[in-house]
Amino acid sequence: MDETSPQFKTLYNAMSTFVNTCMSGHDPSHNPAHVHRVVALANKILTSERALHPTTPYSGAVVKLAALLHDIGDKKYLHSLASVLESDSQASTLDPTTMVHHALIKNGATEVLASRVQTIVSHVSYSTEIKDPSVIRRLIDEEGFIELAIVQDADRLDAIGAVGIGRTFTFLGAQGKKFLVDGKWDMNNSIEHFGDKLELLEGMMKTQTGREMARVRTERLKVFRGWWEEEMEVVSS
Amino acid sequence: MDETSPQFKTLYNAMSTFVNTCMSGHDPSHNPAHVHRVVALANKILTSERALHPTTPYSGAVVKLAALLHDIGDKKYLHSLASVLESDSQASTLDPTTMVHHALIKNGATEVLASRVQTIVSHVSYSTEIKDPSVIRRLIDEEGFIELAIVQDADRLDAIGAVGIGRTFTFLGAQGKKFLVDGKWDMNNSIEHFGDKLELLEGMMKTQTGREMARVRTERLKVFRGWWEEEMEVVSS
User: Fold this and answer.
1) Average model confidence (pLDDT) for chain B?
2) What distances in angstroms separate CA A85 from CA A21, A80, B123, B131, B185, one per listed residue?
3) Which residue range is the domain that position B230 belongs to?
4) Which residues contact B27 (CB under 8 A, 6 or more apart)?
5) Residue B163: closest C-alpha in chain A
6) Helix ranges restricted to H, A2-145
7) Looking at the domain assignment, is residue B185 inside a domain?
8) Does any CB of chain A come closer than 8 Å to the CB of residue B41?
9) Euclidean distance between CA atoms A114 and B45, whole angstroms
10) Domain annotation covers residue A1
11) Number of folded domains in chain B?
12) Residue B176 is nearest to which of A174, A217, A227, comparing CB atoms?
């Protein structure tokens, strides 16, 4: 399906409404605004990578839909979906491995498009990649899911820089006592998350464009962490 | 009561336990860790101001107790106190204008000390000052509540810089849909809070030491806001 066709626009708008329905109740770290930033970042990376690699056959439709749907089925929020979707025929299942495929087909996507987007959505997450990085490499390098690289980079760019810092603390506040490290609901948990994950993302970027943008945003994380440590030093001495 | 006396240490420890009880369930933007940072900042400012103004008779006991108790009775969290304190004889009342006085007297403070600390605690907040700044000026300049300047500055330093940024987003996440600006639970609400309040605090600092520390931390807010605007520009174009 061509990304400039009227059919694509109709499908994209329907899926955008679906995403807003599923995520409107989420806290601001994972709400529709996050998704729409990731779509915009994916579009930016796509434009730049097409210019850098004119013969690589990126599907703009796959990039846009996978970016839009990348957080549908996120385990952290799955519990909140049941009530939202119980009367929504677009999702008769809460199975995170098939929800996106199901909703796409219901809204007129071809089987090929729905399958490609579902596969990418199912492999975007950091924790999935950490479990076995070779699966992701194989999908991108050997099985032709070249759009996964763009969607992953876009999602990870929104996890770093000033926006990433804001999202990390917002998530801490929203998750409440569920988000415990060593039994403590503490802002230092968020700072530990910088070193445990956020500062590692730059090294996992898959596109040249993503890597360049990540360099700037990772530097921001490090500057912020330096401020934090200096301010904590003042109150611990 | 001398701040180095055993009686003061006993009183301070009892009040510290009281604060931990009252605030242990609060989100990390206003929990005991925040209070203990404010106490440490107040001690730092006190030491520095004593060196700058050797003849000014600051009471260390008043500074330490008012810093420790400054958030007891905070309207934002008062609803959560009822269940915590229902079986606690230290607070037979949830009246924010007398809670601190009551708890201090119960734990052996003199009437003079309890009254001074209550008056300072009741006048620390930014929103109280904004309503009528002349009340605060009169307390500090004419009525001898010189410790209020130190406690206010300490509390406001913890609202800016990297820690202030973390607290703002944590509060956004924790308050949930109650924390709505124009009906939206949105990270931009936090950024608007920088310009509406946080960047104004430097100009309201009352001590030379607080003002110098606030300059550095306010610059951090502005740098962070610049990063934020740049990242938002990328996704809006």
Assistant:
1) 92
2) 8, 9, 48, 46, 21
3) 6-236
4) A173, A176, A185, B170, B171, B173, B174, B175
5) A228
6) 6-23, 32-52, 60-69, 81-85, 99-106, 111-122, 126-131, 133-141
7) yes
8) yes
9) 62
10) no
11) 1
12) A174
Question: What CA–CA distances, in Å, run from B104 to B64, B112, B145?
Answer: 13, 11, 18
Question: Which residues of B, range 145-174, sit inside 8 Å of A by Cβ?
Answer: 161-163, 165-174
Q: What percent of chain A has pLDDT over 70?
A: 92
Q: Is A224's CB within 8 Å of B176's CB?
A: no
Domain with A61 in it: what CATH number?
Answer: 1.20.58.1910
Nearest-CA distance from B142 to chain A in Å?
Answer: 31
pLDDT digits (tens, 9 = 90+) for B57-89: 999 999 999 999 999 988 777 766 666 665 555
In eight-state DSSP terms, residue B181 is B
B134 in a structural domain: yes
Task: Please give the Cα distance from B171 to A84 (Å, whole number).
Answer: 25
Q: Calculate how close chain B gets to A114, using CA atoms only, in Å.
A: 26
CB-facing half-sphere around the CA of B20: CA atoms within 13 A: 7
Closest Cα partner for A186 from B6, B34, B224?
B34
Q: Supply the ipTM of this predicted assembly.
A: 0.93
Check pLDDT > 70 for residue A154.
yes
Q: Is residue B49 part of a domain?
A: yes
Please give the share of chain B, as a percent, with pLDDT higher than 90. Answer: 82
pLDDT tens digits, B22-39: 998 899 999 999 999 999
Q: Phi/psi zone of residue B144: left (φ > 0), alpha (ψ -120 to 50 degrees), beta?
A: left
Q: How many residues comprise chain A?
A: 237
Of A155, A163, A164, the closest CA to residue A121 belongs to: A155
Least CB–CB distance from A227: residue in B31, B220, B227: B220
Of the listed ranges A61-65, B22-26, B30-34, B161-165, the least confidently predicted one is: B22-26
Instruction: Decide if B98 touches A, using CB distance below 8 A.
Output: no
Q: CB contact, 8 Å: B77 with chain A?
A: no
Interface test with B, best of A27, A170, A191, A228 (most B CBs within 10 A): A170
